[in-house]
Amino acid sequence: MYPGDAEFGFELLVCRWAEEAWPPAGGRGDEDAVLVARQLGTKRRRWDTVVVECDPAGLAARACFGDRELDSDLLHVVLHAPEEWAWYRDALPHPGYPWRYVRAAVHRAAGRGVVEKRRRGNRIEIRRVAPYPDWVRRIVAIENKPDLDASAARALSDQLSRDVEDALADEVWVATHATGNRVEPALLEDVPVEVGILAFSFDADASGDDWADASVEWHPSDVTPPDAESDEERRTTRLELAERAYGSGWRSYHDTMRPDCRHFELRRFGRALVPHCAAKGRPQTAAECAGSCPEFEPEPPVWRTRGWPIEGGPGKGIQRLLGDRRARVRAREAGEDGEE
After folding, report:
1. Which of 41, 90, 258, 271 is the most buried (most CB within 10 A)?
2. Residue ranges of region Disordered (predicted)?
3. Domain end: 106, 128, 150, which one?
4. Pair 181, 84 in one domain
5. Are residues 99 and 194 located together in one domain of the fold?
6. How crowded is residue 309: how many other Cβ atoms within 10 Å of its Cβ?
7. Which domain holds residue 213?
8. For the chain, what is the domain count?
9. CA–CA separation, 136 vs 52, rounded Å?
10. Tens digit of pLDDT for each residue in 285-319?
């Protein structure tokens, strides 16, 4: 099955599977790379899982700009920073809002080391550190519904139809739990025909790649609009989305949960590491794991003074571990040394 009865546990396993095995048909080659993120989207729509299909060489070049995401203001500076020194107002296109905000972004970009900055008289000049690469090929959105019954399908139908119409993602899927029936119930529900359906079964005790099985019950349509190349707003929004995926990755759950609680643990499920609450004796959801939880207990200070392997407390150790795993996946997908 999957850890816990909530969609959260199912979502984490889908993300881990996608990190290892995307695309569903298999056959990821040396010229393919993926980044996986969760709970990502726009002001209008948030997806459970986002898979960014990348160019490996471009992904490796993206590393020149650091591990953190470049937000929209920083992207405006980095994308248009000139090869030779120039006044930032001459180098950058007008943003559509006051230049003082651009100037603040220039200072922030220089502080991050993603552009170079110098002052000539009363003018601030900038120069790029490297060309920003074209590293994003496609964006795939996945909605996770382990129990896709009729009522859940009805609630999802309008959202999925808008996803297809908006075409911000190139492909849209629904991931659900496999029932083993001759015809999976998800095929009989009201899901837009353009949306693919993946049926998952997981085995926590299986070794190697056998821990997760994904069956394609319905193939999706490519919903990329014909004018995608000339749609600057779509391109910008997708790049901002990809940058957020690059900066967080699906292991970002430790940013919204409380690994500094003495009851917070990581447990292995197949090839995934999922959070577990020792006080509740079960996997917890992200909403449960907060400072308002009645079982929350901060780590005792003595736990943070024992040196290696604690180095600041178990919570900090968990954050480092998940951060290191994220960095290894990036390096692997970019064709560098490093395995998960």
Report:
1. 258
2. 216-235, 300-319
3. 128
4. no
5. no
6. 8
7. 7-60+134-250
8. 3
9. 7
10. 988 998 899 999 998 887 777 665 556 778 888 99
Q: Is 197 contained in some domain?
A: yes
Structure tokens at 31: 């010229």
Does residue 139 lie in a domain region? yes
In 3D space, the residue among 117, 36, 41 whose CA is nearest the CA of residue 74 turns out to be 117
Which of 128, 152, 171 terminates a domain? The answer is: 128
Q: Tokens at residue 22, please?
A: 């995307």
**Residues 210 and 258 grouped into a single domain:** no
Q: Give the helix/strand (H/E) hosting 104.
A: helix 99-112
Backbone angles phi, psi at 148, to 5 degrees: -90, 75
**E-state strands within 212-316:** 212-218, 264-269, 272-277
Give the count of beta carbons closer than 10 Å to the beta carbon of residue 252. 18
The CATH number given to whatever domain includes residue 222 is 3.40.1350
Two tokens at 296? 């929350």
**Is residue 1, in this structure, part of any structural domain at all?**
no
Output the six-digit token pair for 75.
């992207």
CA dihedral 16, 2, 261, 308 (to 10 degrees): -50
State both tokens at 109.
Answer: 């970009």
Residues 220 and 143 in one domain: yes
C-alpha–C-alpha distance, residues 331 and 338, integer Å: 6
**pLDDT tens sequence across 205-251:** 888 889 999 999 999 999 999 888 888 999 999 999 999 999 999 99
State the greatest distance between any 2 C-alpha atoms of the chain, in Å, as a whole number: 75
